[in-house]
Design a protein that fits this description.
Elements lengths: L1 E6 L2 E8 L2 E9 L7 E4 L6 H13 L6 E5 L5 H4 L2 H7 L4 E5 L3 H5 L2 H7 L4 H4 L5 H10 L8 E3 L4 E4 L2 E7 L8 E5 L4 E5 L7 E2 L5 E3 L6 H14 L3 E4 L5 E2 L1 H24 L4 E2 H12 L10 H13 L3 E3 L8 E4 L5
Parallel strand pairs: 4-5, 5-6, 6-7, 11-14
Antiparallel strand pairs: 1-2, 2-3, 3-4, 8-9, 9-10, 10-11, 12-13, 14-15, 16-18, 17-18
The protein binds zinc ion.
The site of zinc ion (ZN) has 6 residues, from helix 2.
Length: 326
């Protein structure tokens, strides 16, 4: 654990969240301005345990950090933001336009994001799990600027493109530096699973919106980045980047196929999650964590007319293949 130089004036801050790696990135401009930017804020424990010690080790003074870019609303990417805003007096807090509400009011992660499937589907986290989420999600915080994608950030002599990369969240941001080919993708693309530090599966993919997710994969592919640096996955370089993106797209197709197989019989969201775990897993976590992707795929299949809801007032809801799709 610690801090690793990955390119000129570019570092990865490494820590763990449970069994998984958790990475933030520091980018510094040239000597004259010495401005720095931080990609992601970790959990509420990360500033003290990892980020501030790393900045000290790198000799980056607190006053020179200009940007705190939270790529998306999740406790492991936004939780440290309120502390970092206090500790880094000149930094502006930024996130995606569509994610502002969730990033600035972390309790909404529990109610709106992680708890989105409780009422209609009876699927979600336990009270004990919600308490551990609250321990890490940080305090409410004001966001200074939002990005919609298409903006440029100038960091001394470096130019970064801010890109909108939705799917895992509505406003997910990635940062791309055309001059170096470095892409900071955070959790925009999920591959086949999220690994533990030892490489074994620790969490299934957790994108929510399938069409935007596929468009994000296409967008990142079109950049042909030299290196992909994400929130939890090991760095991918050269041809590994395109393989990572292609394999992420293939997972989407595989998931559609196993869902349609189970939907021959009426199925609840929970039953579908368990089926996906059995057919495409193990993912190393409670199948409940598949609720985001499975629900996302159900919505897309529904929009296409391939899947119907049996009785919309039934709890939990049940789904089955529409006649035309059989
Ligand atoms: Zn994450």
């Amino acid at each position: 654990m610690g801090v690793v130089e990955i390119a000129d004036r570019t570092w990865r801050i490494e820590s763990l969240i449970g069994p998984r790696n958790l990475f933030q990135y520091v980018l510094a401009g040239d000597g004259r301005t010495a401005e720095a930017l931080l990609v992601d804020a970790g959990t509420s424990a990360s500033p003290r345990d990892a980020i501030l010690p790393a900045l000290r080790r790198l000799g980056i003074r607190a006053e020179t950090v200009r940007y705190l870019v939270v790529t998306h609303p999740d406790l492991d990417h936004q939780g440290g933001l309120s502390i970092l805003k206090q500790e880094l007096p000149n930094a502006v807090a930024a996130c995606g336009f569509a994610d502002r509400g969730l990033v600035s009011e972390p309790e909404r992660l529990v109610t709106d994001r992680y708890g989105a499937y409780e009422r209609e589907h009876g699927v979600g986290y336990t009270d004990a799990e919600k308490e551990s989420i609250r321990d890490l999600y940080g305090s409410p915080v004001s966001i200074d600027i939002t990005f919609a994608g298409g903006e440029q950030i100038e960091l001394g002599d470096r130019q970064l493109s801010v890109l909108h990369a939705p799917g895992h969240s509505a406003g997910h941001l990635v940062l791309y530096e055309p001059a170096s080919g470095l892409l900071f993708s955070s959790d925009a693309v999920h591959w086949r699973f999220c690994p533990a530090a030892d490489g074994n599966a620790a969490l299934p993919p957790t994108y929510e919106d399938v069409e935007p997710y596929l468009a994000t994969i296409d967008l990142l592919e079109s950049l042909a980045p030299h290196e992909l640096h994400s929130g939890h996955w090991p760095a991918r370089t050269g041809s590994e980047v395109l393989a990572f993106l292609r394999e992420s797209r293939e997972f989407v197709g595989a998931l559609d196929a196993v869902l349609q197989e189970r939907l021959e019989a009426p199925s609840t969201l929970r039953e579908l999650c368990e089926h996906v775990e059995m057919r495409l897993g193990p993912f190393g976590a409670d199948p409940v964590n598949l609720m985001f992707v499975v629900h996302g795929h159900l919505r897309r299949l529904g929009r296409r007319g391939d899947v119907r809801t049996l009785d919309p007032s039934e709890r939990p809801r049940r789904f089955e293949l529409a006649v035309a799709a059989r």
